[in-house]
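Could you show me some protein's one-letter sequence and the numbers that encode its backbone in two labelled lines?

___
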Amino acid sequence: MWRTKGDTDGEGENASGEGQQTSQEGRPSDQYGRQEPNERTRLLDHPRPPPHADGYLDPDDPAVSPYNLWTVRFLRAFTVLFLIISFLWWALLLVSIFVSPPGLHTRGSGFFDFAYTCLTIGNLLVAVIFFVAPAKAVRITTAIIAVLLFIDMIIILSVPRLRLEEGWVGIASVIWAALMAIWCIITDRVVAWGKREEEERLTGRPETRRSVREWLAVTLATAFAIIFVIIVILLTGTLGLRARDTTLPMYGDRILVDGDKYAVHLACVGNESYTAGKKDPTIILEAGENPSEYDFEHWAYSAYQNGTISRYCYWDRPGYAWSDNAPSPHSAGMSADALSEALAKQGEEGPWILVSAGTGSIVSRIFSSRHLKQVVGIMLIDPIHEDLLHRIGSPWRGFVLWGWGVISPLGIERLGGAIFKGRTREDRVYGKYAYQNGKFIKAQLQENLVADSLTKNEVASARNIQLRDTPYVLISSGIRSRTDAEWERKQKDLAGLTDRLVAWDTVNRAPHEVWMTLKGRMVMEKRLGELVEAARNVSSERLG
């Protein structure tokens, strides 16, 4: 306790006559009765006597702050440093969605590690902004976040397919997010301790009341923390669905391509057959806007059972169904190269008949131009023309795809569908709702980014290289042709892709997915049989 000048009257001066006095605790005091500053009272160096007779500061005095402690200042400096590091990592992950830096490509979508980094930045921002307003509610909610993040880490590390898809980038992101959550808990706890210590030292007691400003800060910090808890719960639920989906049996094989950077799914049905001593062509299916298993693989299987074809192979482009995502950027020509490599590694040789639909027709046309002798027939089902690729590559569509990709780790639709609508693994992996998958969205985004540039140039070159004597079938959607005049004109242009047009059919009342109607399937199978016959003759001429 400090003593005032009046309290020392009559006690005399010290030997030096400088008015130095002695406190009740035995430490020297100055002429105002204040104790000489030491390592614990350095903040009491006021130019004038304290305003209260008891020597304590007012609780609202700015000097009453946990920042007075070096430990608190140390923690805040490191929190800011961690925030800067997390932001730089976030920027790098953002760029890698569009252009994959060396060593940063992951076989998954890359949206999960981006989501974990966003969560990390959110936690650290709350810690920095509301640094001097510690709250037990924030510590509890952040502890829940940390526990859930460690559960996510265990799921990723324990499921081989998830571990492969997320790679070291995803694993590092979730571990960093968990560690930063723990750091925020420690920081908040230390600041609460420092605040209490300084209040006891400078005001004589710990402050139990809060100002309106402090209550507002605590309320906002707690609200943000609760939002983060909800986000992590959704992330964990979506990760659990992904782990569940990895157990879905797969027909065929996953084959590493492009220097083993990623794997694509390839499956073949049937055995090689020969007619008049010549090998019959194998059908290569190329899906349109959905995985092959959902688009028309079932139609091909029906044609196989009916004896129209003897063998067919289908694959999933990078990011579709069981295939990994490819590094960005990724064009249709790169997909064609991936298919070529997968076929070669599986020992598949021509002759081939290419059957494709929609946007997949672009890949088939490029593939044909790079395998001129082996491709002995082409069948395009309502294909997109290269002059219409700007519809796929529009900037607005790309922005929307990116936005859906960013929120895809929350899995709101997937979780709701699984819990309330009974959607299965098949629905999510290759079925009707595969579009909700982050890998699928990433693949669509990759197609969007280069559709009107790199891909358009590749398919334009392919058209010039394409052999003109290749048997060719074109099947168009009647509905699409009637409702889109430009689409109809471009279908007419595609009819001249080669000089050997076997047939061009416009199926009335058939949508873009022509095989969705009975008449469409019947026309497709009939024309495929005719194409096989025409291809046998070409195969004999080219391959001897």
